[in-house]
Amino acid sequence: MMESKILNEEGLFADTSVPTEKEVAEEDAILETDSEEEITSAQKQRPPVAPKRRQDERPRKPSPRKRKQENSRDNEEFQPKKKPRQIPPETAKEIKEKIKKSEESIAKLKTHSEKGTCPKTLRYRARANIAPDEEFKNDISFIRKDAEKKFLDALTKFHYRRTETLAVKLRKLEQLESRRKTTDVKLIKNRPLSVKEHADRIERIQKKMSKLNEEMIELKREQNKEVEPYPRVSSVSAKHPRTRKGRENQFISTKKRRERKRKLQNDITKKTTESKKKHIKNLSDYDLTRNQINLLSRGLKYIPTPVTNKGHIRKELLKDFANFARRMHLQFIFHGKDKEPHHFHVKSNWEPPIQPSVALETYLEEVKIQLAEIQISKPKNNLPTNERLAIKELKQNTNINIKRADKGTSTVIMNKEDKIHEGQVQLDVRENYRALPSPMVSETYEKVTQLIKTLHHGNHIDTMTEKWLSLTQNPPRIPIFYTLTKIHKPNPVGRPIISGCEGPTERISSFLDFLLQPIAKQQKSYLKDTTDFINFVEKTKVEKKYSSSIHGCDKLIYQRSTGGRNNHCMQCIRNIP
Fold it and tell me: C-alpha angle 455/461/467, rounded to 5°?
């Protein structure tokens, strides 16, 4: 048989099942409030609810009886109000009982939370007046479980807060009661003293005064005591050298101490200088000073703080701002028109006009004003004064040549004549170099220009590439020949290098390299760098009949290695099975 259910005003089934006495007691224990005071305070906080009135209902005039009652109420407002009924304070026993009940409620709620259940009287019992399907049942089941869980959590938190509040209240009450019940006379402050206590206190003070008088007499006796002279253990007083011999001895000890300190500082300086000399190879006849060694040990790429020139800095700031404003205008004009940049793109000198964007122009104006208001201060020098003087000394010395070494980060110093002779030895080899009657830079430049035009007319290169290749300055710079000394060799020799920067063939060489790079990478014998070679050796498996010839390469690599540079390569070759 189906249960009989009653519909309420909202169209929901009202639950008519009657809870048992056990369930009601359990709910009362869980939902038990603190006191009447809490109930009244909660009721005061709750806003008054006005009675609902229908829309079609007109306001009625009050009857004469109601008017009389309202007038009497108005008169009562001017009369003195009665004092509210005072609730007696709670005792410690009542507070303990409430704490105990809250703890029991927490234990019950925890049990329900662990089991995933809920007391029957606290369950979600809303029923809709519809024929529910499976999806609706699942939704309602999820809502019911979530609501019951959150309700239990809220109740648990409430009882925890209630327990903490009551515990604080109980502790204060116990402290107050312990103060009231104190029977120890010594612990009570501001109490009247008896005659016996006054006498005992006076007796203690008199004893302390007599003891103090005895100590003062003993102190005066010691101060007036005659001291007999006795022979000194040391003939010199360290603090008061009154005699001539004492002053001489003190001067000698001070001098020795200073000499020891100076010697220690010199030893530290020598060790530091020796460690810095490891990065410098001096092959010249010039003896470097300590400041020059400290300067060169920093490396040839070290940049000293430049001299501050405010006018020059202002001009550079204006140039940088002009470039920045140009880039911002270009970004505004060509926004959303991004294209893949040409590999040989040539920057144009076109200056974009002022744009209609008020935000952009205002921002640029603010930046310009802030740059004009910048206070230029003198930066701190990053070199000591002695090392700055060493820079001038090395610049003025025209008899030496300072270059980096061919391998590593060392700095090589050679006599200028020796450096010229080192390069002349390379140039005197007629198999590699040949003297020209006149420079061939102009002739080479014309040949390169003609070649570029031919490529452009034959549609082998586009207009942008032709413009990029033609950017070489006219007349072009003559390539420079110089050498870098190989200090890792038993007999240092120079490695010849020709710097072709801004030369007639620099750009066309870069263009040729761009064309050949993809072809070179496709070759099986292509090696990118030393790391690529090491990875290749580690992954390569060699047959046993070739292993003996490969292991013979470690001797050759060792002869060419510099300070363990190729040790990893040797280890990889030795590990080949």
Answer: 95
Give the model's pLDDT for residue 572: 55
Cα 23–28–31 angle (5° rounding)?
120
pLDDT in tens, 67-89: 666 666 555 554 555 556 666 77
In 3D, which of 112, 180, 184 has the Cα closest to residue 148?
A: 112
Contacts of 176 (CB under 8 A, 6+ apart): none
Q: Which residues contact 3 (CB under 8 A, 6 or more apart)?
A: 16
Instruction: Report the pLDDT value the prediction gives residue 523, as an integer from 0 to 100.
Output: 87
Task: Choose the weakest-confidence range: 84-98, 422-436, 472-486, 550-564.
Answer: 550-564
Cis-peptide into 475, omega within 30 deg = yes
DSSP 185: G
Q: What percentage of the chain exceeds 70 in pLDDT?
A: 71
Taking a C-beta distance cutoff of 8 angstroms, is the pair 394, 291 a contact?
Answer: no
Cβ count within 10 A of residue 561: 15
Name the residue among 489, 497, 494, 496 with its Cα closest to residue 561.
489
Residue, of 148 and 320, whose pLDDT is higher = 320
* Pair 276, 294: CB distance under 8 Å: yes
The amino acid present at 363, given as its one-letter code, is Y
CA pair distance 329, 182, nearest whole angstrom: 88
DSSP string, 445-481: HHHHHHHHHHHHHTTSS-HHHHHHHTTS-SSPPPPEE
- Under DSSP, the state recorded for 194 is P
CA atoms within 13 A of residue 562's CA, in its CB half-sphere: 11
**Other beta carbons less than 10 A from residue 386's beta carbon:** 13
Q: Please report, as a single letter, which amino acid is at residue 234.
A: S
Sheet order of strands, 411-415 included: 280-282, 411-415, 400-404
Q: Are strands 12-14 and 480-486 parallel, antiparallel or unpaired?
A: unpaired
Q: Are 323 and 371 in contact (CB under 8 A)?
A: no
Give the pLDDT mean for 522-540.
85
Q: Looking at the DSSP assignment, which residues form a beta bridge with residue 12?
A: 128
Q: Which ranges in 132-194 belong to alpha helices (H)?
A: 134-180
pTM beyond cutoff 0.90: no
Determine how many CB atoms are found less than 10 A away from the CB of residue 502.
Answer: 13
- In SS3 terms, 493-505 reads as EEEEEEECCCCCC
- What is the Cα–Cα distance from 529 to 526, expressed in whole angstroms? 9
Sign of CA dihedral 158, 162, 168, 171: negative
Q: How many angstroms separate the CA atoms of 109 and 156, rounded? A: 7
Higher-pLDDT residue of 207, 243: 207
Supply 165's token pair: 């509040």
Nearest to 327 by CA among 348, 307, 345: 348
Bridge pairing between strands 411-415 and 280-282:
parallel
